[in-house]
Amino acid sequence: MKKIFAYICVVIGVGALGVSSVPRIMHKIWDWNNVHVNRSAWWCKHSNMGGGDLVKLSYLDDIKKFWAYKDYQFPKAADSGKKNINLYIYGDSYTEDIPDSAFANVNEYHYNTKLKPKTYVLDTGKRNILIIEITERLTLESFSSPAIYNVLKCGEPPAAAPVKNEPTPPGNASPVAAPRRKASFTLVSKTNYSQIINTNLEYVLFDYKAINRIRQYKADMNYGLFHHASGDVAISDNGQYIFFKPTVEQGGTYSCYTPVPDDQLNSTVSTLNEIYEHYKKAGFAEVYFSVIPGAATILQPDNYNAFIPRLYGSPALKMPVIDVYSIYRKYPDPASLYRKGDTHWNNNGLQIWLGLVNNELRKQSGR
C-alpha cells in the first residue's frame, strides 16, 4: 500500500511539474479559473476584491491601503485625417488590454505577446508602424543578445495569382500579375520559464481555500510585526507601496538598483539596432521602442541605476523611442501613475503613454 501511494504521489508530482513547465497550459488554467470558478471555490481561486497582482502574490488581502481596482478607460482617439495606419504592437501585460479604438488614425490593429506568436503580412498600401513595448525589468533579458533576432523572422511573400483572361505566352509560362510588395514576419520572444516553475507548482498543488487563509494570517502577522511582505514582494522604504521584490533586490538581475555595465548596455543597443534595420527593410514605415519603467524606478528613485535614460541617451541607438520615463520622472504626483498593490500602471499612467503613441501615429499618418 505504501508503494502504491508513493507511486501515485510520483505520478501526480511529475504531472504537475510537466503542466507547470508549459506556460501556455498555465495560461489556460488561469484564464479558465478566472472565468469559471467563483470566489468560494475550494481550489485555485485566491483572489480579492480590490488588490492587484502583488497583493495576491503576498497574501496581503487584509491590508486595504494596498488595494486598487483596475481603472483603465479607453475613450476613442481623435483622428487627424484618414485612417491609413496599420499598427503592430509587440507588447506585454502593460498593453494587452488596449483596444484598437484607443489609437489614432489606425486602419488595422495587430497585437501579440511572447506567448501568442502570430504571422503578419504587411499591406504596402498603408503605413505600417511597429511598436515594441516591454517592461523595464525584462529589457536586458530580452534584448542584450541577438538571440531574439532569430525568432523575429520575416517570411516569404505569398505567391501572386495568375492574371485571368490573358493568353498564355510561349514556353508554357503563365503570366502573373505584378505582386505588390509584401513582407510577413512572426513576432515571438524567448524567455526562461524555470524562474516561475516553483510558483506554478505551488499554484497547481497547493492553492486551496483553507491553505490560503492560513497564508493570509501569516502574511498579516509578518507585515504587522516585522514590516515584511511574504514571497516575492517587498515593502517600500516609506511603507506606502509594495514592489515586486526582484526589482528592488540589491544585485538582482531584474533590480533597478543593480548597476548595468557599459558593455551590457552597448550590447542591448546593438541588438535594438539590428531589429530596427531588419523591420525597416521588411517594409515598416517606422519602428519604435518603448520601455515602461517599473514602479520602484519612479516611486523609490534613490540609487536608481539610470538604465532607461542611459539606453535612450546612447548616441549609437538608431531606433526611435516612445519615452514615457522622462514624463514620469518629472511628474508632480508619481504615486498617481501606478496601481497600488500591483506591478502595472493605473489609468493615469496608461493615458500618458497612449498620448505619446497617438502623437506619433498622427505624425506618421500625415507623411
What does this structure look like?
The protein has helices at 2-20, 23-36, 53-58, 139-143, 197-206, 209-226, 262-281, 295-299, 307-312, 325-330, 347-365, and strands spanning 85-90, 106-112, 118-121, 127-135, 153-155, 184-187, 233-235, 242-244, 286-292. The protein has 367 residues and is α/β, with parallel strands linked by helices. It has one domain (49-158, 178-194, 209-367). A four-stranded parallel β-sheet has the order 2-1-4-9. Strand 7 (233-235) and strand 8 form a beta hairpin. The protein is globular and about 70 Å long. It starts with a helix and ends with a helix. The relative contact order is 0.16.
User: Count of helices?
Assistant: 11
Sheet with most strands: strand arrangement: 2-1-4-9
**Count of domain modules:** 1
Mean pLDDT across all residues, rounded? 79
Note the quaternary state here.
single chain
User: How large a portion of the residues is in β-strands, by DSSP E?
Assistant: 5-15%
Largest sheet, if any? 4 strands, parallel
Helix/strand/pairing category: alpha/beta
- The Cα radius of gyration reads 24 Å
Helix content: 25-40%
- Beta strands, count: 9
Low-pLDDT segments? 166-195
Q: Alpha-carbon distance between the termini?
A: 76 Å
* Coarse morphology: globular
Q: Topology as H/E string? A: HHHEEEEHEEHHEEHEHHHH
